Model the fold of this input.
Amino acid sequence: MTPTDQIATDGPKADWRGWVALAVLMLPVLLVSMDNTILNFAIPEIARDLEPTSAEQLWIIDAYSLVLAGLLVTAGSLGDRFGRRRMLLIGAVGFTVLSVAAAFAPTAIALIAARAGMGVFGAALMPSTMSLLRSIFRQRDQRRLAIAIWAGMFSAGGALGPILGGVLIEHFPWQSVFLVAVPILVLLLALAPAFVTESRDPQPGPIDGWSILISMLALAPLAYGIKEIAVSGWIGLVPVAIGLGFGWIFVRRQLRSAHPLLDMGLFRRPTFAGSLATNLCCIMGYVGFLYFVSQHLQMIVGLSPLMAGVSLIPGAVVSIIAGLAITPVARRFRASIVVPTVLVLAVAGFLLVALAGAHGLWAIVVAFMLIGGGTGAAQAISGELIVSSAPPAKAGAASAVSETAYEFGAVLGTSILGGALTAWYRGHLVLPAGVPEESAAQARETLAGAVNEAQAIGGPVGESLRAAAADAFDGGVVTTSILGAVLTVAAGVVAATTLERRRRH
Done:
């Protein structure tokens, strides 16, 4: 075992204050993960109130995630230099102020600007949470459990977002989806100074402003281009190419710098790189599943947004339990064995939908429980390995890279699996006779368009259109589920060949 590994494994156990600090750090994790899904239910109300154009409506959703993805690496490195708790508190203050600004935005442009600002301060929140766990829980078994709780709360937040969004929009104006962040962050600001201890890199070196700029020019266009490929086709390759070009410049600059913004040597550690790739593949499959299941439950099964969210609760609960239950197992067996084994559950969940179809609610619920259990357990282990395999001084940068993988996994899951689903739907939709040409054009675009047109047409023709759209969409669900299974198998192969290889010697 190397000296670095010894540092990562040994250390004093945290007392009760450490566990209180963990509870405090879960507040921003839950909030930021909910924010990725809660806004979808408010968009119709926002559109009626602010009357955005179609492009502005997309930017209301995307501005937050694009800015967040572009700044995660920078924010993690700044936390290493200036203090991770300090970055957490700065992020909480800024996120609170801009959440209020978003709630009272008078125009769509003002809302887009507020959402972009929320992305800036959200980037300060997330890497700080995981990197602070590294300094609070120095004993590896405790740290493994703490990161399992972190991963479970992140997954739970994504599943709770639709539930909370459905409740808020049914009973309150759309502004409530932004104001819900205020009490959570006020509680964080009150408790964090008392229970969360500060940590930083003792020898941070100077700040490289050019690297900060280049990292943003690499990550933001890449995230935007991936989204555009799913929406606009090959034109999205232009920003992807721009992002990759700046990414190449960024890597070369880091390799030549005496004080790099991001230590590229982290990626030469098999456990770090393998854990990162495993998480990326798992998140792609998980988010891709949520993308189609939310539409299926509401538009084909006929559930309300609230009940559709409630039906996902068992999967979210299983994800949390699996992340906690895998901790004692991970102490006894190598991650290269445990992670591929638990991912078999996720593969089974995708195959259940692919083979049984998505016609029954039970299949969706059981499949999500299997997928949540498998990915929840795998991410708990790989997330801990990402942090523990990096030097303690670089915990913020390592956590930021991990968070970037989460964000890009979500973008890729929606774009690749969602794009495959959309392509299948459009290619296999057989319109019944009697559908007007204008309605046919809308029906070919999306399942939502077909359902809306079917309701407008009514009668036997409308019912036939709805049935045809459901059949085409469910065929795409089968294809998407197979892709999700392939991604999960790839994650298992990567884990089996890269994780904790040092123990074999």
About this structure: The chain has 20 helices and no strands. Confidence is low (pLDDT under 50) at residues 1-9.
